[in-house]
Design brief:
single chain; 8 strands; alpha+beta; 8 helices
């Protein structure tokens, strides 16, 4: 009888936790990169100088892609008024073409012999992650995703997000360059009307302030009046 009662309470607890998780799938956009997400609106021309000023030194031994990621991520956290990133944040970066300039350099060096070690490391898109972790003084769940549809990164991150939400970036080297980031934090579902997001542009629009995951569909909503 005791065992049966214990199992009943165990099942009840699992159900309660599951219900709580289902109710916690709403996030508020608390920060975004000032440059926005337009493909024609890249970082400022002196972004590398701005990054060096921010860090107090010029980054060494990392590629352009990782530098762009640092610039955008720090800008986004500034907008979110966060000086540190919580450990249980999910950090995801999307890049379709990866470290193009470093790959070209490695191929050129390969024609003359073996590529230089740092050139090879810079050609690895995953080097973005240790660069971000070092500058943010952060350890946690991070990953680089290659996806043709930028919405795929958002969907993946929403399914994997923890209690502290997400930091998401879309980074490309190709001119004018891109380092567009969003910081999303869990929140209580607002009274604003949600609609299914039909495009990436809708999801990252300045008028969009909330994301919600419902049955494998991301819904969006504007700011509450």
């Amino acid at each position: 009888m005791v065992s049966s009662k214990k199992n009943w309470w165990s099942r009840k607890r699992v159900y309660a936790v599951g219900a709580q998780e289902m109710n916690n799938l709403t996030w508020q956009i608390t920060g975004r990169t000032p440059a926005g997400f337009s493909s024609d609106n890249g970082p400022p021309e002196n972004w590398r100088d701005q990054l060096a000023t921010r860090l107090g030194h010029r980054p060494r031994r990392i590629g352009i892609l990782a530098e762009l990621a640092l610039f955008g991520a720090l800008d986004c956290l500034d907008a979110a008024k966060e000086t540190a990133l919580p450990g249980d944040v999910v950090l995801r970066v999307c890049s379709l073409r990866g470290s193009v300039s470093a790959l070209s350099q490695v191929l050129e060096q390969n024609r003359e012999g073996l590529p230089m070690p740092f050139s090879f490391l810079q050609s690895q898109t995953g080097q973005i992650l240790p660069a971000l972790a070092a500058v943010l003084n952060w350890q946690g769940d991070a990953g680089v995703v290659v996806a043709r549809n930028p919405m795929d990164l958002a969907m993946l991150a929403c399914h994997q997000a923890g209690d502290a939400g997400m930091l998401l970036g879309w980074v490309e080297e190709a001119k004018p360059g891109r380092s567009a980031w969003l910081r999303l934090a869990p929140c209580t579902s607002p009274s604003a009307g949600f609609i299914s997001a039909s495009s990436f542009e809708e999801m990252v629009s300045p008028s969009t302030h909330y994301w919600r995951l419902r049955q494998a569909v991301i819904e969006i909503a504007p700011a509450c009046d």
